[in-house]
Write a structure and sequence with these properties.
The protein is an alpha+beta fold. Helix content is about 15%, strand content about 35%. A hairpin with a 3-residue loop joins strand 25 and strand 26. Helix 8 runs parallel beside helix 9.
């Protein structure tokens, strides 16, 4: 086995102690000297059905996990589920999580013959790497569900499930109600994403809104589910200040685009200027196929021209449920800062809609790849400028569709259920919340 593989597949030499009598789970730690406290709580759990507990002991860098191996058949799909309750942990996503490893009958790593998407390491043998199932939101009692459906690699004979606690000096985690069942492969979640490459030339908000009608109709003809429009589209070429172009939300523009969204049965993301009391915000609005506002995002990062023009920054990174998946939004200058797309991803975004006046397209590619997320931009830049593009980027940063001429609509169909596996990294999207750097205190 290549020595590089040993670094990315650390299922070697762990310190094990007693076997838990409830279900065959064993206590494990990378090293005995950093082992946390383990116990079985027979009356814990959401239904008092028992829980596997790991507790911090006040020391830095503790790490341990409950482990159990499940017999599998290569090529079969399996559903994993566990309930987790994190109490007083410093960062639950980093501290308390699940990993699943696929092994042969001897406990060795197997080749991963499932689809890979990265071509950067052509000579790298694709040994399977750990899966990281995603967490759901905690309920009112603090219990959250961690779950996923995976297809076992062809050579796999076992799935090794580890329930972790690491690195928190305080708190504990309880794990309960573990399920591992064969299932049918996960159904597809296909969605057609669209961008409008257009710069309005009207002299009023109404003229600019009307100019988008034919492009929305064209996107509908191509069976688009989500259509992204331009940034501050009622302000462009209208000869007004930001404040003069701003309107309430709901307001005339959301009503206008709401009628179109309802008529064509799709989601629209127009970029607008919002007035809220004495404040003006640069916003993206997600409008649903029922014509109603699903939600809005207020631009967090403001370039000089905007904050000097009296625009206020937003502070939140909302993500919204749609009929096909979870959608976040960002706006123009946000693309220069990795924190915006990362926060949207950590909040669950699978697709990021991005009205953008101009930005470096290489940064757009990076935002997609580093977050394992689809990014849809709609820009006012001409493609000949070799600057921002109206593009749909996939989760590896590759271009799926691009608007090459003004007055065109670009559409791409994607499957949100498809796991994008990178060679040497596997399902990178599952790792993001576990591996992303924790925030550091602000510097003065």
């Amino acid at each position: 086995m290549n020595s590089r593989i040993l670094l990315v597949y650390p299922l070697l030499a762990v310190a094990a102690s007693k076997v838990d009598p409830q279900g065959g789970w064993t206590e494990q730690s990378p090293r005995d000297e950093i082992k946390p406290r383990f116990s079985y709580q027979p009356s814990a759990g959401p239904n008092h059905s028992g829980a596997l507990r790991i507790e911090a002991d006040g020391r830095e860098g503790i790490a341990g996990y409950w482990r159990k191996s499940f017999v599998v058949t290569g090529g079969q799909s399996y559903r994993f589920e566990v309930l987790r309750k994190a109490v007083d942990l410093e960062s639950p996503a980093h501290n308390a999580f699940v990993t699943i490893s696929w092994t042969d009958e001897k406990g060795k790593a197997v080749l991963d013959d499932r689809p890979q998407v990265s071509n950067y390491l052509q000579n790298f043998t694709p040994w399977v790497v750990d899966e990281y199932p995603r967490d759901g939101k905690p309920d009112s009692t603090g219990w959250a569900k961690t779950e996923a459906v995976y297809r076992a690699p062809s050579a796999a004979k076992a799935a090794v499930v580890d329930l972790h606690l690491r690195w928190s000096k305080t708190g504990r985690v309880d794990w309960s109600s573990v399920k591992w069942d064969p299932v049918d492969p996960a159904p597809s979640r296909k969605v057609r994403l669209a961008t409008v490459h257009f710069r309005p030339q009207g002299k009023s908000a109404e003229a600019n809104r009307q100019a988008y009608v034919k492009f929305i109709e064209e996107a509908s003809r191509q069976k688009a589910d989500l259509v992204v429009l331009g940034e501050t589209l009622t302000y462009v070429n209208a000869g007004k200040t930001y404040a003069e172009a701003a309107e309430s939300i709901p307001g005339p523009s959301t009503a206008f685009f709401g009628q179109l969204a309802k008529k064509h049965g799709l989601y629209l993301v127009p970029g607008l200027l919002e007035r809220s009391g004495h404040l003006v915000y640069n916003v993206s609005v997600l409008i649903g196929p029922d014509g109603e506002i699903v939600g809005k995002y207020r631009k967090v990062t403001l370039p000089d021209g905007e904050w000097k023009g009296g625009v206020a920054p937003g502070r939140d990174y909302p993500v919204f449920d749609t009929r096909f998946g979870k959608v976040g939004m960002m706006i123009c200058y946000d693309g220069f800062f990795p924190e915006v797309a990362r926060q949207l991803t950590l909040n669950g975004a699978e697709v990021i809609a991005w009205p953008v006046w101009g930005c470096n397209p290489e940064l757009a590619r990076a935002r997609a790849a580093e977050n394992d997320v689809y990014v849809i931009s709609s820009t006012y830049e001409d493609i000949s400028n070799k600057w921002m593009l109206s593009t749909i980027w996939d989760r590896t940063g590759d271009t799926l569709a691009v608007g090459k001429e003004f007055g065109t609509v670009a559409v791409a169909e994607v499957d949100l259920a498809q796991i994008r596996r990178w060679k040497s990294l596997g399902d990178f999207g599952g790792k993001i919340s576990r591996h992303t750097p924790l925030p550091t205190p602000s510097r003065q």
